[in-house]
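ok here's Transposase, seq below lol
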Amino acid sequence: MQVSHETIYQWIFTDAQQGGDFFLSLVRHHKKRRKQRRSSKKRLFEVRISITEQPKIVADRVRFGDWESDTMKSVALVT
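and the structure came out like this:
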């Protein structure tokens, strides 16, 4: 007689629902999972400079990284 692993786990599951304790014999008997704690929301940029305190060269936008991200166009997924 052949029995699949799925049949064995179904039998153990129904036994556990009826108050049995065969599931405790399993190597991993599926204890209740704890909810994952969310880490405190840390700022990505701890030290920020106000726009009014930025050097004048940034306002001129002559260097590569001086452009604001909302003025940049990115590739969009079109369906």
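fwiw Helices lie at 5-17, 56-60. kinda neat tbh
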